[in-house]
Amino acid sequence: MAATLYVGNLPWSTTDTSLADAFREFGTVHSSRIITDKETGRSRGFGFVEVDDPDVEKMISGMNGKDFGGRQLVVNEAKPRQS
Questions:
Q1: Which of 25, 38, 58, 67 is the most buried (most CB within 10 A)?
Q2: How far apart are CA 41 and CA 22, in angstroms?
Q3: Distance between CA 59 and CA 26 in Å, rounded?
Q4: pLDDT one-digit tens code per residue, 5-43
């Protein structure tokens, strides 16, 4: 089973790959995506990382508040989308 983490305060230069690589230190990463502005294509400064359920707490405690490209990350478990 997988869980999704919200990652905020990302540097503008962050890519899907660099975001996933940063989290791999703490467990299994299935995917990552940076949210971009539809009109400009520029990063909106946040993204999501899909990880294994058993690794969630380890990743949050390891990455929340960590310096990443000169910015302190905000990491928490993503809330499910409401339809």
A1: 58
A2: 23
A3: 5
A4: 999 999 999 999 999 999 999 999 999 999 999 999 999
Q: How many CA atoms lie within 13 A of 9 on its CB side?
A: 14
Helix/strand/coil (H/E/C) assignment for every residue in 12-77: CCCCHHHHHHHHHCCCCEEEEEEEECCCCCCEEEEEEEEEEHHHHHHHHHHHCCCEECCEECEEEE
Cα gap 12→65, rounded to integer Å: 17
d(CA 60, CA 78): 11
**Whole-model pTM?**
0.90
The full set of domains in the chain, from first to last, is 2-77 (3.30.70.330)
Rounded Cα–Cα distance for residues 24 and 36 (Å): 22
